[in-house]
Amino acid sequence: MKLRLRKTYIITAIICLPVSLMMCRKAGEFPESDYDPRLSGGAATVFDESNRAFSHMIEGLNANDIHAHEVGDGGVEQSFVTAPAPVNSGLGPVYSNVSCVSCHHNDGKGNPTAGFVNSSLLIRLSIPGSDAHGGPLAIPGFGGQLQDLAIYGFQPEAKVNISYTEHTETFPDGETVNLRTPAYTLTNPYIPLPADYMMSPRMAPPFFGLGLIQNITESSILAHADENDSNGDGISGKANYVWDPYLQQRMIGRFGLKANTATLLTQVAAAYQQDMGVTSYVFPSESSYGQSQYDGINDDAEIPDSVLNGAVFYVKTLAVPARRNVKDAIALRGEQIFKQINCLGCHTPTMYTGVDVTCKTLSNQRIHPYTDLLLHDMGPGLADNRPDYLATGTEWKTAPLWGIGLFEKTNGIPFYLHDGRARTIEEAILWHGGEAENSRNAFKQLSTADRKALISFIKSL
Ligand SMILES: [Ca+2]
Ligand SMILES: [Ca+2]
Ligand SMILES: [Ca+2]
Known about the structure:
- The protein contains eleven helices and 16 strands.
- It has helices at about 1-20, 65-75, 210-215, 220, 265-275, 305-315, 330-340, 405-410, 425-430, 435-445, 450-460; strands at about 45, 95, 120-130, 135, 145, 150, 160-170, 175-185, 200-205, 240-245, 250, 320, 350, 365, 375, 395.
- About 50% of the residues are buried.
- The protein has a domain at about 70-215 and about 260-315.
- The chain has about 450 residues and is α+β, with helices and mostly antiparallel strands.
- The strands form seven sheets. Strands 3, 4, 5 and 9 form a four-stranded antiparallel β-sheet that branches. A two-stranded parallel sheet has the order 1-12. A two-stranded antiparallel ribbon has the order 2-6.
- Helix 2 (about 65-75) packs across helix 6 and helix 7 crosses helix 11.
- The structure holds calcium ion (3 copies).
- One calcium ion binds near residues 226, 229, 233, 235 and 236.
């Protein structure tokens, strides 16, 4: 393992050195031919196709940073336990899972079950209206997220029941695909739920490349927005703007499936507090604060600042896996089709990062996330009917497609879309509606060979 890792780092270094030397030039000054299409994360790319593909540190960190990354790596793997305990104390009283990686499997995606170890689905909750900052209105007694597990002596807020109904879609060549529509019901609430509650089921997305995402300038995200669809292609992406409770300001949203969080610090601190019931300097109160199950203990942070900061630094500095099969004729044909049927109207292939003075590897990079980080109406089939800041009940952030071809390796059984309903890439595409309806219909009409080519392109990412 060590040996192979060293080899992949050496290869990365050989490839990244000339790239980083070229970095003094401004983005956009490069002729296409200067680029290696494998470098999905620019200098922050790693060459590994194994089940650990999402778990590598970016190059170019100093000794302090490497230490912080390693502290974070340990931290995200730790399972929390009921207080008092000598280590990792403070789970709950109510929670959704016991560690980061039990939801984000192998630093990758999760699976769409609920209420079990290793299940990665959580339910966001609200009632109609919005809070003082334009965000979702929390349900009294439940807050903005459902915790479906509890430590001994406490009751989960409710249990989640998921059932699926299937229907079949047929391609013109006769090949069929089964699509499953999920239905969610909450059972055994610890107190009655209001009649008009709304829920948004969400499955854990991968961790890697997030330092790059954090570093894309706001103006280059807005450059892709087209709220009134002035170019008439049926696609009208818009940015989400959210309240950051730590910085106490309104900011562009980048993280979360509706771009509902602005910074990695808030995202990770909220994961500790809401997903695991673990308090920190960012969120010093338990998720159950103010509820009847609140344990009444005036909590100090249950994790030291170094653990929270380490976890943030860890996800910031995970490298993006390199693209594969870049010279494969079928995949290249698929790339043309991806353009032709306007998948790239939302899945923007190329973005540029700005400057991060603390990290050269994340600065001024040409990257290939295949997302515009914008919100799009995806139609009634994918709707959760729960607004989240500026995102309506039918809008979702374009899912990044980098690394998607490796989900089978990192997850065993891969699951796609915000709630994991899709089991194959074909299923995921067939669920596209709303602004993506034209692309979806064009996909459905492709010849067998073109359809397979498109899928093989996506699997090369
Ligand atoms: Ca706790
Ligand atoms: Ca809650
Ligand atoms: Ca447009």
